[in-house]
Amino acid sequence: MKRLLSLTETVAAVFLLLIALLTAANVASRELFGFTLPDWFDGSRMLLGIALFWGIALATWHGSHICVDLVWEQLGPRGRRWLGALVAVLCAAYFAPVAWMVWVKVGGLGGQATSDLRLPLSWFQTVAAAGATAAAVFAIWRALEALGGRKLEEGCEAAEAGHGS
């Protein structure tokens, strides 16, 4: 599991880096040479979508979504485990159809491409769809782990301890 999470973190980080590099290169080329990079806008939008889906997958696994711990604080360990499982099931119920619809969109792209370089949009959308699928899988996995009684890093607790986001 650690290797899968490490890969997920790497994918999200690489695409954030690519966004930064593409934006910096476009600004530099525009200021220094007077032209913009072809497809920089479409490329940055597609890369952002990829980074967001893979980041959501990580947040789902770590349980580090926005936390309101009013109920959480009142529960004991067993109640927290059940609440964590319920939240994970709700996340899975949300992310599974989202992942499905992103894959449907990938299937319906046909030969659509970016405007300048004619890069197929399906390349970008497929990587984003894989991130959406990872979010759904991580939510299901997290629910099963919680229902199985395993202690998971909880987002609210980890954030208080300085280990989460």
Tell me what you see in this structure.
With 165 residues, this protein is mostly helical. The chain has one domain. The model has no long low-confidence stretch (mean pLDDT 86). Its main location: membrane. GO terms for molecular function: transmembrane transporter activity. It is a multi-pass membrane protein. Part of the tripartite ATP-independent periplasmic (TRAP) transport system.
In short:
By secondary structure, the chain is mainly α.
Architecture blueprint of SSEs:
Blueprint: H1 2-33, H2 40-62, H3 77-107, H4 121-147, H5 155-161
Strand content: under 5%
Report the helical percentage: over 70%
The SSE string, one letter per element, is: HHHHH
Shape: elongated
Integer count of domains: 1
- Got a strand count? 0
Main sheet attributes: strand count, strand direction, barrel closure: none
Q: Please tell me the overall pLDDT.
A: 86
Give the oligomeric state: single chain
Radius of gyration: 19 Å
Counting DSSP H or I runs of 4 or more residues, the number of helices is 5
Q: What class do helices, strands and sheet pairing give? A: mainly alpha
Extract low-pLDDT stretches: none
Tell me the span between the first and last alpha carbons: 20 Å
GO cellular component, one term: plasma membrane
Domain Tripartite ATP-independent periplasmic transporters DctQ component: 19-147
Organism: Azoarcus indigens
Function: Part of the tripartite ATP-independent periplasmic (TRAP) transport system.
Keywords for this entry:
5 helices; mainly alpha; 165 residues; elongated
